[in-house]
Amino acid sequence: MAETIDVLLECHGALSEHMGGDTVGLALDAPHTIDHLLARAQTRWPEAASLLSRTACARGDALLPPETEVGAGDRIALIPPVSGGAPASEPSSHLTVDPLDLDALMAETEDARCGALVVFGGTVRLTNAGRTVESMDYSAYGPLAARTMADIEHETIDAFDIHACRLQHRTGRLGLGEMSVYVVVRAVHRAPAFDAARYALEQLKARVAVWKNEYYSDGTHAYLEGTEVPHPERPR
What is the CATH number of domain 95-223? Predict the structure, then answer.
């Protein structure tokens, strides 16, 4: 008889509401793989099935291919489509529950070789899709989000031949006008600096494990639709 193992699932974004908590247990029969885990989860929590069908899985700071073996007692993070931001347990240089510090980012990236500086700052705005917003709750899967942000910084520097790129995102409940994200780019000339800043921001919004739970003036709230994170391919 095939062995059934117990695994712990971390539910991020809207999954925490559909699956009944931030962490839930799942009894997983064979095969003990990520793709079978997601299939079993869809059966166990049918109200979350649609979202689970577009969910990736991670362990630590690494996304897991569908064929990855799961062991008894493993803790697997469920990563639904991201919308670019539970606070990280230990704030990193990329994620923080504290107000963002632009002065620190400016000092960190200072470079006398650069004649161009581009800074983008994103804030919580009053309306979205015709609804009045009162606040925004940003949650993140810290290990993967921080690693992905560092990857984007390095990719941007290489792709646009710039000297510095820094990303920082805030987590937790933010009020109107509060700063949620900074992108800081320094380059010799303005054209690559502007292009690099736009690229880094779009990559952050599409790839980083951050979710937005928007709170409205009528007392309701909703997670914003996001971009599906693809499962990585198993190395050959």
Answer: 3.90.1170.40
Grade residue 87 by pLDDT with cuts at 50, 70 and 90: very low
Domain 5-79 part of CATH 3.90.1200.10: no
pLDDT in tens, 33-45: 999 999 999 999 9
Within 8 A by CB and 6+ apart from 218, the residues are: 131, 132
Structure pTM? Answer: 0.80
Question: What pLDDT, in 10s, does the model give residues 100-138?
Answer: 999 999 999 999 999 999 999 999 999 999 999 999 999
Look at residue 90 and tell me whether its pLDDT is greater than 70.
no
- With the C-alpha atoms ordered 50, 56, 57, 61, is the resulting torsion angle positive or negative? negative
Q: Are 75 and 22 in contact (CB under 8 A)?
A: no
Distance CA 137, CA 153 (A): 25
C-alpha span between 99 and 131 (Å, rounded) = 26
Whole-number Cα distances in Å, 148 to 44, 99, 154, 217:
30, 21, 10, 33
